[in-house]
Amino acid sequence: MANRVNLQGNQACALGAIAAGCTFYGGYPITPSSEVAEAMARELPKVGGTFIQMEDEIASMGAVVGASMGGVKAMTATSGPGFSLKQENLGYACGAEIPCVIVNVMRGGPSTGMPTRPAQGDVMQARWGTHGDHPIIVLTPASVSECYTETIRAFDLTEQLRVPVIVLIDEVIGHLVETVDLDDLTPQTTVSRKFADTPVEGFEPYAVTEDMIPPFPRPGDGYRSHTTGLTHMPNGFPTQNPAKAEAALTRTTDKLVLHKDLIEFCQLIECAGADLVIVAIGISARAAEQAVRDLRGQGVNVGLFRPLTLWPFPETTLKAAVQGAKAVLVPEMNQGQMVLEVERLMAGDLPVHALNKIDGEAITPSEIAAKVKEVL
Amino acid sequence: MKDLEPETPFEINDYIRLEQMPHFLCPGCGHGIALRALLWAVHELQIDKDKLAVVSGIGCSGRLSAYIDANTFHTTHGRPLAFATGLALARPDLHVIVITGDGDSLAIGGNHLIHACRRNLNLTCMMLNNEIYGMTGGQVSPTTSSNRYTTTTPAGNTEPVFDACALASAAGASFVGREVTMQVTGLKNLMRGAIEHHGFSFVEVISDCTEIYGRKNDLGMSPEMMLSQKATMRPEAYRNTVDVPFRPNALECGVLTQKDRPEYGSAYREMTANLRAKGKQHG
Fold first, then answer.
1. Distance (Å) from the C-alpha of residue A350 to the closest C-alpha of chain B?
2. Do B276 and A26 touch (CB under 8 A)?
3. What pLDDT does B283 receive?
4. Would you call A42 and B20 a contact, using CB atoms and an 8 Å cutoff?
5. Shortest CB distance from A62 goes to which of B51, B69, B86?
6. ipTM of this model?
């Protein structure tokens, strides 16, 4: 049965969260992400969930982490300035391994910037916004249907791996309206975290397991464990013992390396035999896809590499995708953030060109095509 | 919570994580007394430890959660009420108790406190007021008394003092109380009333930081500090004579506010249940 609807990217994120089993949303109004909160306020009561608008961005992130500590799937959404405020409690979730999903709809910055204008200036904030070495996963939908499916994937990943997941979209994708068939897009099953079910006696909430993902002790199940943002031992209590501290921190980051195949997801368009590979996300990737089609029509051999998982960056896949290419082009709506990672991976083997735009307008296919012709 | 009194007397070892001893509080610190009073109240109310969640912030007060044999969460500075709000809404079957300090809840977490009071979610908040940032070495806090020396008020504190209970009452908290650590039984009874109260309850515990604040201001040893705190309590008869957020040099103790307001979690769940029963929704 078809369930075709016209949806906005932001609304699709909300419906994807509901489809993934999210039952808690803690939010705070901010342009251009507010439609996520508005949709959740309508939808969550229908599934017996809880919506709350907190007193500020910090509190909304705290409430989301608090709800997840209670064992439920929880989410929030925000934009640049709010995302900055959320970093403190997001870092707590990274350190204490509390699953949660944060939708960040990027607008012009810094500071209040251009609230209703698109940008992609949070590529690095999404990766390194909170302090200290920490694991994090960042997904980059580029269409309304992907807002739906990637939000579901965000929940599956955060629950399975106990790592916070950011759904990073720009204002264009957030407010883009497209027709989608939700029945087609909804998976048969979704993933919930592994709850501890072993005997209470001797249970350690951060025990080192083979998959590096400790089972989650749900309050009320008898484990009575301790959760802290302090660097902790397998028993959950703080430590400053150098060996134990290093082991604890290393496991949380090694966890992502171990489960790389589960996390990484890219789209490759016409990369085989391409002279130039464009690396782009979000609305810039949509423009790049059109540019690839136009250029191919003119006999120019270009391809598009689109990292739907932006962080951890799909290194191996990108290196394979650029085999035989003469150059790489990174168009992005910032002064050059993702390009730094691409340059690092190319390590001088290939010239990496940047196309940057920070005027509050999306990059167009013709601008990308012109840049490709200029550098090839 | 059960109607009958517990059959066994309160034994603190039944409620703390002995393996975490020795604790890290300084000699003379009042926080341990407050912890004892809290756990005594938990015992009298016969709360199942599996259903008890304690959420704390950062600072000396924040470290107490690690010693309680319950589901404990040591969160970020000033934010325990925000975490607790999410936890209590997601898990209404849990008894959620927040332990916080004067810096944690009146300075960095002030916004969360006033909105927790306004919202009236079923949470119990115990604020340990020792007038100082002890963990960071003794800096001035919103409750540091006038003219006191701290490491950041080397010539004496010139900032006005925040009255936490007046703030909580004004912001709508439906249960507000204050007690000194000298009155352990009184504090236990106050905590018991706070936990039993259906809605947001706020208890300010006048604690003493002997080691840093007391020493810096020549306030004597812990017993002297506790006696002077007890001596500055405002007599009942004067309770309503001054009502400004800046506290005069006298404290009101006991239950200061108790009112019947709709509890947020119940109200929200009732609203959503009605929506589901109707099977449709406006808008």
1. 45
2. no
3. 46
4. no
5. B86
6. 0.97
Sequence letter at residue A337: Q
Task: Provide the domain count of chain B.
Answer: 1
Q: What CATH number does the domain located at A4-185 have?
A: 3.40.50.970
The pLDDT mean for chain B works out to 93
For B92-140, write each residue's pLDDT tens digit.
999 999 999 999 999 999 999 999 999 999 999 999 999 999 999 999 9
Give the pLDDT band (50/70/90) at residue B239: low
Q: In the prediction, which pLDDT does B164 show?
A: 96
Per-residue burial over A38-54, b = 16 or more CB atoms within 10 Å of its CB, e = otherwise? bbbbbbbbeeebbbbeb
Interface mutation vs chain A, best among B15, B83, B264, most A CBs within 10 Å: B83
Q: How many residues does chain A have?
A: 376
The beta-carbon neighbor of A69 closest among B50, B73, B93 is B73
- Angstroms from A48 CA to nearest CA on chain B: 7
Report yes or no: A301 and A329 within 8 Å, Cβ to Cβ.
no
Is residue B250 a part of any domain in this protein? yes
**At residue B237, does pLDDT exceed 60?**
no
Closest alpha carbon to B80 in B99, B60, B64: B99
- For residue B126, the enclosing domain spans 24-278
In this model, does residue B211 exceed pLDDT 90?
yes
Domain harbouring B169, CATH code: 3.40.50.970
CATH 3.40.50.920 intervals, chain A: 267-375
Give the model confidence (pLDDT) of A238-254 as tens digits.
999 999 999 999 999 99
**Position B212 in a domain:** yes
Residues of chain A with CATH 3.40.50.970: 4-185
Q: Is residue B5 part of a domain?
A: no
Q: Give the whole-angstrom CA distance, residue B267 versus residue B154.
A: 49
Are B63 and B17 in contact, with CB atoms under 8 Å apart? no
Regions of chain A short of the pLDDT cut 50: none
Q: What topology is assigned to A267-375 in CATH?
A: Rossmann fold (3.40.50)
User: A48, B272: Cβ pair inside 8 Å?
Assistant: yes
CA distance A24 to A186: 20
Find, among B119, B72, B149, the residue nearest to A237 by Cα: B72
Question: In three state form, how does the secondary structure of chain B look?
Answer: CCCCCCCCCCCHHHCECHHHCCCCCCCCCCHHHHHHHHHHHHHHCCCCHHHEEEEECCCCHHHHHHHECCEEEECCCCCHHHHHHHHHHHCCCCEEEEEEEHHHHHHHCHHHHHHHHHHCCCEEEEEEECCEECCCCCEECCCCCCCCCECCECCCCCCCCECHHHHHHHCCCCEEEEEECCCHHHHHHHHHHHHHCCCEEEEEEECCCHHHHHHHCCCCCHHHHHHHHHHCECCHHHCCCCCCCECCCCECCEEEEECCCCCHHHHHHHHHHHHHHHCCCCC
Nearest chain A residue to B51, by CA: A220
Cβ under 8 Å to A: B residues 52-111: 53, 55, 65-66, 69-76, 79, 81-91, 93-94, 111
Q: Let me know if residue B47 belongs to a domain.
A: yes
Strands A327-332 and A276-279 turn out to be parallel
| Residue A169 bridge partners (DSSP) | A105
Q: Which of A290-304, B13-27, B269-283 has the lowest mean pLDDT?
A: B269-283
Nearest CA in chain A to B279: A46
Give CA angle at B165 (B162, B170), nearest 5°.
95
What does pTM read for this prediction?
0.96
